[in-house]
UniProtKB/TrEMBL annotation:
Residues in DNA/pantothenate metabolism flavoprotein C-terminal domain copies: 3-204
SUPFAM superfamilies (alphabetical): CoaB-like
Pfam families, sorted: DFP
GO molecular function terms noted in the UniProt entry: catalytic activity
Protein name: Coenzyme A biosynthesis bifunctional protein CoaBC
InterPro entries hit by this protein: CoaB-like_sf (IPR035929), DNA/pantothenate-metab_flavo_C (IPR007085)
One example of a Gene Ontology biological process annotation: coenzyme A biosynthetic process
Species assigned in the record: Stieleria maiorica
Length: 213
């Protein structure tokens, strides 16, 4: 049986002590993947941003807030895992300056300077050992297949799951699973639990059984 790290949910990047930028990720895909993996007897660690979703009680849940925190926790847990599934939607940008006091309204437009946050999956993909695997998600509004193959390579993933914007904050999903060569090896549309069942079965067959003696 494998020990699997799942990143899940959004991250938050604060502008000041009360305001933040984020996205509408619910953590439901991560929860569904964890549920299936646990049912098959795997151990699961979920590094999650703030979500309204309840994770399976058998999973070890590591709560984080920012993308930097998600990266640090994921790196530390990944070293003790066989593989990672990046189901999180980390905030890709953070304010260049975080104000220590609440920004006061002036009536004038407020300009924010944003800088990129680190990419968690790409960092894990780059650092993985020969006996570890990394699976990413690619959420795209257009050129889905092509953009997924670019991310597969750029983030050093062993497989990537391509899905569309209807996945966000929804109970259903419609995905394609691409193997390391970019070939579509599975297509599934249904509830996130149904999708998770197929994805974990494929990950089990194609990655876990190859790396666990
Ligand atoms: O946002 P993007 O479509 O590039 O995400 C693709 C994959 O990379 C997903 O698995 C997501 O969890 C991961 N990701 C990440 N850290 C980021 C952005 C994306 O781990 N900062």
């Amino acid at each position: 049986m494998a020990k699997i790290l799942i990143t899940s949910g959004p991250t938050r990047q604060y502008l000041d002590p009360v305001r933040y930028i984020s996205n509408a990720s619910s953590g439901r895909m991560g929860a569904a993947l964890a549920e299936t993996a646990l049912r098959l007897g795997h151990e699961v660690v979920i590094v999650t941003g703030p979500v309204p979703t309840t994770y399976p009680s058998a999973a070890q849940v590591v709560p984080v807030v920012t993308t930097d925190e998600m990266l640090a926790a994921s790196q530390s847990w990944f070293a003790r895992c066989d593989g990672a599934i990046g189901a999180a939607a980390p905030c890709d940008y953070m304010p260049r300056i975080v104000e220590t006091e609440k920004i006061a309204k002036t009536g004038a437009p407020l300009t924010l300077q944003l800088i990129e946050t680190p990419d968690v999956v790409a960092t894990l993909g780059q650092a993985k050992r020969d006996d570890q695997w990394v699976v990413g998600f690619a959420l795209e509004t257009n050129d889905r297949r092509f953009r997924a193959t670019v991310k597969l390579e750029k983030k050093h993933c062993d497989m990537i799951i391509s899905n569309g914007p209807t996945a966000i904050d929804s109970d259903v999903n419609d995905v394609e699973l691409l193997d390391i060569t970019g070939e579509v090896v599975a297509r599934v549309k249904g509830t996130k639990q149904e999708v998770a069942d197929v994805l974990i079965a494929e990950i089990d067959r194609r990655l876990i059984r190859k790396t666990i003696a």
